[in-house]
Every structure is written in structure tokens, then in C-alpha cells.
Amino acid sequence: MRFLALLLIMLAAPDLAFAEDAVFKVGVTTRDFIPAEPYDWRGAGTHVLRAVIWYPAAADAHEQPQWIGPRLVPFVSTGRAAPDAAPAAGPPRPLVLLSHGFGGLATDLAWLGAGLAAHGFIAVAVNHPGNNRSEDRTVDGYALKWLRAVDLSRVIDAMRTDRTFGDRIDPARIGAVGHSYGGYTVIAIAGGITDPERTQAFCRSPAADALCTSQPGATELRQKSVIRLTTDPDFRQRYSLGGQSYRDERVRAVFAMAPGPVPAFTPESLGAISIPVAIVAGSADEITPPASGAEALGKAIPDATLKLFPRAGHFVFFDTCTLVGRLVIGTVCRDPDGTDRDAVHAETIGLALDFFTASLR
Fold first, then answer.
1. Which CATH number fits domain 2-359: 3.20.20.10, 3.30.470.20, 3.40.50.1820, 1.10.760.10?
2. pLDDT per position as a tens digit, 4-44
3. Claim: this prediction has a pTM higher than 0.70
4. How far is 315 from 313, CA to CA, in rounded Å?
5. In the chain, where are the structural domains located?
């Protein structure tokens, strides 16, 4: 049995193309950031911003495979990194924030965090309160989605004063990347303003698509939020703040992967975004269809760039799953026929590196 488990791991280990041209070893560590109170925790039981940090490590760092799941038969590969390794020496480095999708985790984007770190960036991903799978998702965590941008702003604050990384960050070179709900998050921090009623109006219109029905968990939370709006004055007041701007001027460029829910943004605010924006998505995205998501965003934001990966689905931007993971986890581990997830990851890392290198000069 032990031999079979090890064999499965070896067969499933991803061949990450970026490792071949890596400039640095990759270090990884974690933090529990505690923002100043009062803070809107969105009904979450955990009152810290739990973060994972990938960074350029010293040359003698010992990288090792990183996995999620049982030790002998893990479900997901999160690449190679050296836990708590000493950071590499050098000048202050650019910081890139990573925002996971609906009900995800910081580690879902480990492939990208490690890829950026291998080329000189410090990358930090955070678990968004009330909307991550370390605990039950909440109505507040779903409905008050613009507060995810506040999470990213507080992470910038914390990283700037961190005992290890504070002096290693160039405050003039900060960017953000997000997948799915995280794609929405980075557009919000870039200046996109939410009208909470726009998504509901879209889903009642003839243009409604899979965005409105593809995730049963989201549909249930949407229905509960409608009820809360009629019965809970505090929730109604917090919900009304969605129309404010959550732009953080420290963020100078954003990279959105399979972004959603795009219909929530006001067209005027998207047209006023003035920082560089890059968008990537799968042409066969079954959760946030390109027509109402990535393509609509690309048309609305001045000078935004758009790359569609042929035949790729929504979860191609999730970490690479092992053979066991594809059997046990299912949907997020499976791609449409003809899609090579590792190849999409490698190309996306290259696009992100080129984009942030040019945008965060």
C-alpha cells in the first residue's frame, strides 16, 4: 500500500515549466495578520487574516514538494518551496497580492505565488473571511464581496511592517492577482465600483447565463442575502456601502483570471480605471462565461489586455491535482478534454511576469 501511494504521487507530480528558468529558490511561510478593530469579519469565526507568502529564498534553501491532503496520498500539488527559508539578499522587491475564488483558500494560487517568487517577486495570498473553505461560508462573506478589497489593503499594511518582509518590499511596486471572485476583488481594488443590484438585474434579464446558476452554494447564499436585506437593518446598512470606491492607490497594476461577477460593476467605474489591467480566462469557462465576464471586462476597461485559453474551463487556474485528487475532489480538479493545466499555468506565469515587470517599473 505504501509503495502504491508513493507511485501515485510520482505519477501525479506536475512538471512546472517555470522551474527550469527560475532565478531564485522559492521560500514559503505563513502569517496571521490582525487588522485594527473594528473590522468587518463578515460572520467568520476566525478573526485573523490568514496569509501564505512566497518569496525569493537564499541560494542554500532546501526546496521540497508541497502538498494538500493526506501525507501518503495527497490530493493537490502546490509546487516546490522551502518552508521558512531565509529570504534572498538584494534590493527591495515588488509585492503581488493574490486573491482566491469563491469559497477557496490562499493556497489555491500556490502555483502562481511560487512562479512569481522564483523570478524575484514577493507574493502573498490571504483567506477572505466568511468566504473560504477553512470554515463555513457566510451570507455576509458572499454578499459583502467588496470587503475582499479591504482585506487586500490591510495585508499591504501588514506586509509593509512585517519583521521579515517590511524592508524587503518596494512600496512603489505593488500589484494584485485574483481568480474568479478574486478577479472581481482585484478589479474592485483597481477602482471598479459595485452596484449590488446589477447582478440580480442581470440574472433576471434575457442575457442571464451560467454565472447565475452554476454554483448551487452561491445561489443559496444569494437567496439568503435577499431575506436578510428585509429583516436585518445592520446587514442592510453594510450592504449599502457596496457603492463606495475601494480603490487602493498603492496597487499599480492588476491581473484578473476568469473574473466574476463582472455584471456587478458599474460601466462608468470600469471606464475610469487608469492602471494597467490584464485578463486571462478559459474559452470554455462554465462558471463565469467569457461573454459576461472576461470579454465584457476587456471591452469596458481602457487598454485592458485579454487572453483566452482555448477549451480551458474555470478551474484551470486552480492548483494541479494528483491522480487521487482528480478522483476524490472532482470538479475543480478536472479540465475539458484537450486542456493541459500545467501548460496553462506555465503560460499564465509567463504572462503575469511580463505584465508586472512592465507595469511595476
1. 3.40.50.1820
2. 343 343 334 343 334 457 799 999 999 999 999 999 999 99
3. yes
4. 6
5. 2-359
